[in-house]
Design a protein that fits this description.
Number of strands: 0
Low-confidence stretches: none
Order of helices and strands: HHHH
Largest sheet: none
Number of helices: 4
Structural class: mainly alpha
Mean pLDDT: 81
């Protein structure tokens, strides 16, 4: 389960592993659950401004593009098929 390359990784918190293991072995289940909690920074890491702009454009532009495509398809479909209620 734990390999040397994973234990040596910069993001791996060996101190948390040790404290959680000791808490699980030495304390009651409820106290071990409280002792193993750690503060975690909320949010995301640094995101480049160009990446933010691309995601923002994608998110904000998707719905208008879908509505425009639906309108064009509906317009093309109505031109191809005659309406049932009209007479020539």
């Amino acid at each position: 389960m734990f390999k040397d390359h994973r234990l040596g990784a910069p993001g791996f918190r060996a101190d948390h592993l040790l404290l959680n293991a000791v808490a699980a072995l030495a304390l009651d289940r409820d106290l071990a659950a409280v002792a193993s909690r750690r503060r975690v920074a909320r949010g995301f890491g640094h995101v480049e401004p160009s990446t933010k702009l691309r995601w923002r454009t994608l998110v904000l532009g998707t719905m208008p593009a879908v509505l425009l495509a639906a309108a064009v398809l509906r317009s093309l479909a109505s031109r191809r098929s005659p309406r049932a209620g009209t007479r020539d």
